[in-house]
Amino acid sequence: MRRGNRSVVAGLAFLAACGGEGAPGRPAALAVTDDAGRRVTLAAPAARVVSLAPSLTELLFALGAGPQVVGRTTWCRYPAAAAAVPDLGDGLNPNLEAVAARRPDLVLLYHSPLNETAAAQLARLGIVAVLLRQDRHTDVARHARLLGVLTGHPRAGDSIGRVLDSVVARPAPPAAVRVAFVVWDAPPTVIGAGSYLDELVTLAGGANVFHDLAPASATVSLETMAARDPGIIAILADSGAVMPPAWARRPEWRVVRAVREGRFLALPADLFGRPSPRAGEAVAELRRLLARGTP
Amino acid sequence: MRWFVLGLAAVGALGAAVVLGPTAIPFAELGTSPIVRDLRLPRALLAFLVGGALATAGTGLQGLLRNPLADPFLLGLSGGAGLGAVLAIALGWGGPWGLPIAAFAGAMGAMILVYRLGLVGGGALDPRTMLLAGVAVGAFAAAVTTAIVSLAEASQLRNAFLWLWGGLSGASWQTLAVLAAYIPVPLAVLAAAARPLDLLALGEEPARYLGADVERVKRRVYLAASLLTAAAVAVSGVIGFVGLLVPHLARHVWGHRHRALLPAAFVGGGTLLTLADTLARTVVAPRELPVGIVTALVGVPVFALLLRRWGAP
Fold this sequence. Notes:
The complex is a heterodimer.
Chain A: H1 2-18, E1 30-33, E2 39-42, E3 49-52, H2 54-63, E4 69-71, H3 96-101, E5 106-110, H4 113-124, E6 129-132, H5 137-151, H6 154-169, E7 177-185, E8 188-191, H7 196-203, E9 206-208, E10 217-219, H8 222-228, E11 232-237, H9 257-260, E12 264-268, H10 269-272, H11 279-292
Helix pairs in contact in A: 1-5, 2-5, 5-6
Chain B: H1 2-19, H2 34-65, H3 77-90, H4 98-118, H5 127-151, H6 154-164, H7 173-182, H8 184-192, H9 194-200, H10 204-209, H11 214-236, H12 242-254, H13 258-282, H14 291-310
């Protein structure tokens, strides 16, 4: 949280310096601290932004910075308007020439060791990069404010941040449905407490039966799955995915009661595939789906 | 005596695999619990068959190549299987049946390639050429695999790797039945080659003088060992070290006669993998470790210790 506070302070300092959004006068330097602990300064709000993480691209469009986005990854599929932005390939270990060719004044990278190297390389080219790790909804709120400052939409950033804060702070309804998120069938891999999906389930009035696992995802044994006996098996799915999935017919999976009884819930990857500024919508939709049960 | 101890260890390992697990099941319910009946029991038996198949294949290949480093995966089979699995996922065929079939096909492809390359010197399979060909085919397959992984969507392929280094979570009575129906033929081929393999240890020339049909034996042993390995990959991914460690252990206890060595390696490999899988399921419960990591973590120190005590094999 300390990092979050620092970026908020930086945002406030910027607001104070400018006397509010769009105020006349000399633009002061914009300064933030990214998730790698690096101090990043811009002389003016970035006009050309390359976003190399799908969740950050979505956030930029939500902030109203969509027209400033001049590059994205192959996997940035939301919102639909992002498709019009040039595709620069992968977001991890990105193609730096392709990035530099877009002449960005700000590059957003997912915070990983490979990308720290990429950020250092970009710095050598004189291009400013921020490393952001957006894994939880609190990260989205913090990044909304930070990117709002860097792209010149501080009010939008603040309002998205406030909405997300209130979504996360809202007391969760008592857990009525026990859910297991299955991300892969062989070896069985599930979502643990480290994922935003675990947060979402709790906020929507469910309980992740693998909440005791700290990482975002983990391989578990099927017998634990059978013993914990989730009421619903949730799966992230692209549109058009068939439910139940093919692996549900495998004999070893049929030991799990929810699989035997066909209680699967397909969650559209568009809305649920990443921590996003639409968390409120995602929580409401998940609450509706959990209450309805499965077909 | 040594057969009795080995048998006891095998029964103990299978018993432990059924009784122990991440879920506590009261002793009285062991007979009725669906977790024991449909998950633990087929998984324990599958681990035993896979471990046995890998160790027997390793024994045959070490005899054939007269090389103590020979292991079922040395000759490019793991590379081929990995390429098959990753290709299947990249092309969207990675269903619950597609992945094992693709891995099996990839291993067979590597096997055929290495076999053809091993024959380049004329009609005779040259062990040295085969080793080189195996390493080259494996490296090539690994390079293609890495190229696909770096170009395709990451999350799916991370899962392909997990599966490939995976383990026995896909065990069911169905997979057990498929493997149990499949492995007797290559096992029988290896068993029938026991005597010629003993002769081959003397060198190809002496073996020929002593009446072994050397070329036929080499071909059969290589094909049988590869078929066993490919089947093991299809049901459990790449499980290293069992096929390397167990033949050496067995040779130290049972000597160099393949008639005793092959069955001892089968039971020993089965016992080792069953124990390793029980550890993989329980030590970090409710999470699970890839069983190949356990076989290496447990096997390598044991192997190092034995090497020190015995000197070079």
